[in-house]
Automatic annotation (TrEMBL):
Cofactor names: [4Fe-4S] cluster
Organism in which the protein naturally occurs: Woeseia oceani
Entry function: Catalyzes the condensation of iminoaspartate with dihydroxyacetone phosphate to form quinolinate.
Protein name: Quinolinate synthase
Residues that hold iminosuccinate according to the record: H25, S43, Y114, V115, N116, S131, H199, P200, E201, T216
Gene Ontology terms describing biological process: 'de novo' NAD+ biosynthetic process from L-aspartate
């Protein structure tokens, strides 16, 4: 903890001298989330809040696609990613060439991409979505058929909640695909009255067994508003740590699936990034112009 305190003091000082803000995803560890972050939330909130910051420097405490999204929306600002290797199994599951092939296979069918993709992939798609607005985005297109990439399970969840025909891809989140319905059953047996809330990146049988399904922000709202006696959050480990601080009357049952990519971000590399103003995220303008349009179309539809 004294080491953390030194980093926290240094980072908060550097934020002032660099005119920097730190955007932190809900999966960041509590010392980042609660002690140095200026803006926290789900992927959609981070994208929305990145638009209106007047800081010169944005530090993205999250994964690479989130930093790219912030850069797309703030081309004139320095966007720092404390560890460029913080990737995502979903973003790695599809390439721009894959999307071009899908378009050839299904001519005229619009393509929605989950925000968990590279800027190159976004540039080939019509519009982005997040787990918080996926159904609304699909329905905003006014098409009876939509290609939805790359998360197969989020696509299945959307298909269940709309009449639009969904053509999906086989990408999975390496964290959420590990949860099982059998695991939920055994937790329910051991904890009477347990509420199970799940992220839509979980497999369909897991979502079918859950009491509530939503993005990380929607999961947090559920716990804060409903105040269940006991809750099991089927998502990345740090969520329960971060939410539990504000709801002391709720008991959190914690199966722990860590995202190794999110966990690459530390107080130490945030500090180093602010000291050196590296590594900065750059996106080729020929890609950025098209990827930005896909993100801006999403933001125009809203949550
Ligand atoms: P949300 O915070 O948008 O629900 O996304 C979850 C996730 O896995 C981000 O990597
Ligand atoms: Fe990607 Fe899953 Fe990690 Fe989110 S939790 S960054 S979707 S691998």
């Amino acid at each position: 903890w004294p080491v953390h305190a030194d980093h926290i003091a240094a980072i908060n000082q550097l934020k002032k001298s660099r005119n920097a803000v730190i955007l932190a995803h809900n999966y960041q560890t509590p010392e980042i989330f609660h002690c140095v972050a200026d803006i926290t939330g789900d992927s959609l909130a981070l994208a929305q809040r990145a638009v209106d910051t007047d800081a010169d420097v944005i530090v993205l405490a999250g994964v690479h696609f989130m930093a790219e999204t912030a850069k797309l929306l703030n081309p004139g600002k320095t966007v720092l990613m404390p560890d460029l290797n913080a990737g995502c199994s979903l973003a790695d599951s599809i390439t721009a060439a894959d999307v071009r092939k899908l378009r050839e296979q299904y001519p005229g069918v619009p393509v929605v991409t989950y925000v968990n993709t590279s800027a190159e992939v976004k540039a080939e798609c019509d519009i982005c979505c997040t787990s918080g607005n996926a159904v609304a985005i699909v329905e905003s297109l006014g098409s009876d058929k939509v290609i939805f990439v790359p998360d197969e399970y989020l696509a299945a969840y959307v298909a269940e909640h709309t009449d639009v025909e969904i053509i999906s891809w086989k990408g999975h989140c390496e964290v959420h695909e590990r949860f099982t319905a059998a695991e939920i059953d055994s937790f329910r047996e051991g904890h009477a009255g347990l509420k199970v809330i799940a992220h839509p990146e979980c497999p369909p049988d897991v979502l079918a067994s859950a009491d509530f399904v939503g993005s990380t922000a929607q999961m947090q709202d559920y716990v804060v508003n409903e105040r269940p006696d006991k809750v099991l959050m089927l998502t990345e480990c740090s969520m329960s740590d971060n939410v539990s601080i504000s709801v002391e009357d709720v008991e959190f049952i914690r199966p722990c699936n860590l995202c190794p990519h999110m966990k690459r971000i530390t107080l130490a590399n945030i500090q180093q990034s602010l000291e050196t103003l590296t590594p900065a995220v750059e996106i080729d303008e020929s890609v950025a112009i098209r990827a930005r349009a896909a993100v801006e179309r999403m933001l125009a539809v809203g949550r």
